[in-house]
TrEMBL record:
Lineage of the organism: Bacteria, Pseudomonadati, Pseudomonadota, Alphaproteobacteria, Hyphomicrobiales
The species this protein was found in: Microvirga terrestris
Pfam families: DUF202
Transmembrane region(s): 103-125, 145-167
Domain DUF202: start-end pairs: 66-126
Biased composition (Basic and acidic residues): 1-21
Keywords for the protein's UniProt record, in alphabetical order: Membrane, Transmembrane, Transmembrane helix
Official protein name in the record: DUF202 domain-containing protein
InterPro entries: DUF202
Lipid bilayer topology: Multi-pass membrane protein
Region (Disordered): 1-42
Broad class of where this protein is predominantly found: membrane
Subcellular location: Endomembrane system
Keyword RNA-binding attached: no
Length: 173
């Protein structure tokens, strides 16, 4: 009968070992599931990171587009101001005749017409020499040779109007 308590102890030990093995198996399965979740979370984070980077790149491109459009609006404002100044300089002779002395009419018209030529030159300068280049925009910028050609013609018109103001009538009546 001495073997009975040893057998009981062995059975109890075997039962504890089986329970420990089951718990170890469950812990291993839980660890495997946690590892799979961690791996899935890492993939999700990587995808989100790529999407965030793509989103940031897109925002940068859109900002570059807005910068190009703002530069074009500035160019248009310079040209518009130059044209208004040119028209005012030409109209000054007819508008101010008989109201102020002739030398004042000549000075006012000259300043307005010279300012128009300055505006045409400044428009090209601001558009072509922007300082630092924006990141690569999706939209194309206006070709500089077209700006120089167009505004150069307008500056010549301004100078012709200035000579017309100084030396008499040209063209019309």
């Amino acid at each position: 009968m001495a073997t009975q308590p040893v057998d009981d102890k062995l059975k109890v030990s075997a039962e504890h070992a089986r329970e420990a093995a089951e718990q170890t198996q469950e812990a291993a399965e839980s660890t495997q599931e946690a590892a799979e979740h961690t791996q899935a979370a890492a993939k999700t984070t990587a995808v989100a990171s790529v999407q965030m980077k793509d989103s940031a790149d897109r925002r940068t491109e859109l900002a570059a587009n807005r910068t190009v459009f703002a530069a074009e609006r500035t160019y248009a404002a310079w040209v518009r101001t130059g044209l208004a100044s040119l028209a005012s300089g030409i109209g000054a002779q007819k508008l101010l005749a008989g109201v102020v002395p002739d030398w004042m009419i000549l000075a006012t018209g000259s300043v307005l017409i010279l300012f128009s030529a300055f505006c045409f030159a400044a428009a090209v300068w601001r558009q072509v020499f922007t300082g630092s280049q924006p990141p690569h925009p999706d939209v194309q910028r206006l070709p500089p040779f077209m700006l120089v050609l167009f505004n150069g013609f307008l500056a010549l018109v301004s100078l012709a109007a200035l000579f017309g103001l100084w030396f008499g009538q040209t063209g019309g009546s």
